[in-house]
Design brief:
mainly alpha, about 240 residues, binds zinc ion
């Protein structure tokens, strides 16, 4: 009886903690999404409004709630705050709660949550700017490789998944490009990198193979879809 109550309490405290931690991490992710393409570091300056440059006060910094309370406008200049930042905070909330429910507090939780937050940042920058950030990709693939190595006690699993998917996706891209009579450039094709990241993170070659059917949706608008797949894949695989 006592252990049941203790487990219950641990579980509830964990959920409440994740409901706070997820959006807080998401809030930080937003400043990376905003500042990285401008060549600024997230540590450079206190959060500010991109329109009027006003320094934001604590009441402006509550993830999700601040945005809702001002109906998506800056409190100081009424400039619109893009909804994408609230979507990023919500995505991080989902990541932390889902991974806590699935993995509990564990190394898997830490590594997959980190990988997925980087995937969300990657997708948001691609959505806004049209390119993949190589540094953020590097962080994401490092977390994916660590998580998978932890599971399999070998580095061959993620290496095989990554390279196999990269080669297969490049072949598909080449065929698609030939059909459209366009030159193919696998290293500049974001969906190939996305597919390789997902194939590196989970040992599900059969489940990963349908990724090869997705280049039909290859534009920058497909970035959120790939981020969602990166979040769902570890939950399905382990
Ligand atoms: Zn403003």
């Amino acid at each position: 009886m006592l252990t049941t109550i203790a487990t219950h309490q641990f579980f509830l405290t964990g959920i409440i903690f994740m409901l706070v931690l997820g959006p807080a991490v998401g809030n930080y992710a937003c400043s990376v999404v905003y500042r990285l393409p401008l060549g600024k570091t997230p540590f450079e300056r206190h959060p500010f409004c991109g329109h009027c440059n006003a320094d934001l006060q604590p009441r402006d910094l509550f993830p999700i709630l601040s945005w809702l309370s001002t109906r998506g406008k800056c409190r100081y200049c009424q400039g619109p705050i893009p909804g994408i930042y609230t979507v990023i905070e919500l995505a991080c909330l989902v990541i932390f709660v889902a991974n806590f429910l699935h993995f509990g507090i564990s190394e898997n939780f830490l590594l997959y949550s980190a990988m997925e937050v980087f995937a969300v940042i990657l997708a948001a920058i691609q959505w806004q700017q049209g390119w993949l950030s190589s540094s953020i990709y590097g962080y994401a693939i490092t977390c994916a490789a660590l998580a998978r190595t932890l599971h399999e006690a070998t580095i061959y699993g993620w290496l095989k998944g990554f390279f196999l998917m990269f080669v297969l996706a490049s072949i598909v891209a080449r065929i698609v490009a030939a059909l459209q009579k366009k030159p193919s450039a696998p290293f500049d094709t974001p969906w190939i990198w996305w597919s390789a990241l997902i194939a590196a993170s989970v040992p599900l070659h059969v489940t990963c193979l349908p990724l090869l059917l997705l280049p039909a949706l290859a534009g920058r608008r497909s970035a959120p879809l790939y981020a969602a797949l990166a979040i769902v894949a570890p939950l399905l695989a382990f």
